[in-house]
């Protein structure tokens, strides 16, 4: 069997089968692409007019992304530990904290342009190594087959998807990366469709023992940035995926059926990722519209954001809801609220915790 034929047998995925013969796309995907083209055109305006506000949004997007992407996989840490850990001012105390901190390090690499225009196998393994931290299989492909099993609350379990066998994973990943490069070079389809197709194939291959979901979201963000889609710098795509987690798993399951035989329908998952990116741009536009309010409007905006917070909150929580308003102005507003008897401090120091009083 030739190497090409062998690779076809190993990777019957989206990029090397479906996209080679693509001649039309569903109307829903076409609408998403049109809307995203317009949204992308607004990026330069935001960057030019609101550089400081976008810097603030980026800071909180990184925090939200590190927390949400790990939380989707069941990795959670104490809220009071988040800022010190991500700022590098605290030592990790357990495995979950190490993985959240590792994801932030991987995000920093992504935002620095680490992936570039062409994705490479070594880059993917480096990202996995960063997000997994100091474990034995960090950055290494799985060494045994690992199918995706869904467990129900009553203890029942079912095989949701049979991934590519461990022995075939290195060649499958090499072929996936090569096919993505070829499709981009030949403009086989719109870049966003190619990125989403790559993401689907990556998840179906499931190359690592653990951390595949998180790696896929890092790759998604990096590949979007490489094609000039910058919303993920300022709005957490991982948070939006977490907020739509049920749809994420539903469309992934729909699009993975028949993947091994090359008879799958990739459009449910592709449309889902286009929906997520559109939601990110919509939120970015909404926040940009709130930037630089007229004098007197700032206080009203802070109060509205304050009302939307839970009974216990941190200053960082309030700042994240008020893009374009300086932390100093927000601190002054909190002091005013305290003087008016509307809030009290229940935990002082770094990451101070506040509590609302009354109604």
Secondary structure elements and pairings:
Elements: H1 3-10, H2 14-18, H3 27-41, H4 43-49, H5 51-72, H6 79-86, H7 95-111, H8 121-132, E1 148-151, E2 157-161, H9 169-185, H10 191-205, H11 212-226, H12 231-234, H13 237-243, H14 245-256, H15 267-289, H16 297-308, E3 312-314, H17 315-320, H18 327-339, E4 343-347, E5 353-356
Antiparallel strand pairs: 1-2, 3-5, 4-5
Q: Would you kindly provide a written description of the structure presented here, covering whatever features stand out?
A:
By secondary structure, the protein is mainly α. It folds into two domains: 3-289, Fido-like domain (Fic-like fold, Orthogonal Bundle), CATH 1.10.3290.10; 297-356, Orthogonal Bundle (Arc Repressor Mutant, subunit A), CATH 1.10.10.10. 61% of the residues lie in helices and 6% in strands. The chain has helices at residues 3-10, 14-18, 27-41, 43-49, 51-72, 79-86, 95-111, 121-132, 169-185, 191-205, 212-226, 231-234, 237-243, 245-256, 267-289, 297-308, 315-320, 327-339, and strands at residues 148-151, 157-161, 312-314, 343-347, 353-356. The chain has a three-stranded antiparallel β-sheet. Strands 1-2 form a two-stranded antiparallel sheet. Helix 8 crosses helix 11, helix 9 packs antiparallel against helix 10 (191-205) and helix 14 packs antiparallel against helix 15. The model is unreliable at 1-10 (pLDDT under 50).
């Amino acid at each position: 069997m030739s190497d090409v034929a062998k690779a076809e047998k190993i990777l019957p995925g989206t990029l090397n089968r479906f996209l080679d013969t693509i001649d039309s796309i569903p109307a829903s995907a076409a609408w998403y692409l049109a809307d995203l083209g317009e949204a992308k055109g607004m990026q330069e305006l935001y960057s030019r007019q609101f550089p400081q506000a976008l810097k603030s949004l980026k800071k909180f997007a990184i925090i939200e992304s590190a927390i949400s992407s790990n939380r989707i996989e069941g990795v959670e840490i104490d809220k009071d530990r988040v800022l010190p850990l991500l700022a590098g001012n605290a030592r990790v105390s357990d495995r979950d904290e190490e993985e959240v901190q590792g994801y932030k390090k991987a995000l920093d690499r992504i935002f620095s342009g680490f992936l570039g225009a062409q994705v490479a196998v070594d880059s993917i393994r480096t990202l996995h190594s960063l997000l997994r931290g100091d474990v034995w299989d960090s950055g290494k492909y799985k060494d045994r087959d690992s199918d995706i099993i869904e467990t129900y609350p009553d203890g029942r379990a079912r095989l949701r998807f049979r991934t590519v066998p461990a022995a075939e994973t290195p060649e499958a990943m090499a072929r996936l990366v090569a096919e993505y490069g070829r499709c981009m070079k030949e403009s086989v389809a719109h870049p966003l469709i190619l990125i989403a197709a790559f993401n689907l194939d990556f998840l179906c291959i499931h190359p690592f023992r653990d951390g595949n979901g998180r790696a896929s979201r890092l790759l998604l963000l990096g590949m979007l940035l490489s094609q000039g889609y910058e919303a993920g710098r300022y709005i957490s795509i991982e948070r939006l995926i977490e907020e739509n987690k049920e749809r994420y798993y539903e469309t992934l399951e729909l699009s993975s059926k028949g993947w091994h035989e090359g008879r799958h329908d990739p459009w449910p998952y592709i449309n889902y990722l286009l929906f997520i990116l559109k939601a990110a741009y919509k939120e970015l536009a909404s926040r940009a519209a709130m930037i630089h309010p007229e004098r007197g409007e700032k206080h009203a905006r802070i109060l509205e954001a304050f009302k939307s917070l839970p009974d216990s909150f941190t200053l960082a929580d309030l700042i994240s809801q008020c893009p374009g308003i300086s932390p100093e102005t927000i601190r002054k507003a909190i002091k005013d609220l305290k003087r008016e008897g509307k809030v009290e401090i229940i935990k002082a120091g770094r990451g101070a915790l506040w509590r609302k009083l009354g109604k």
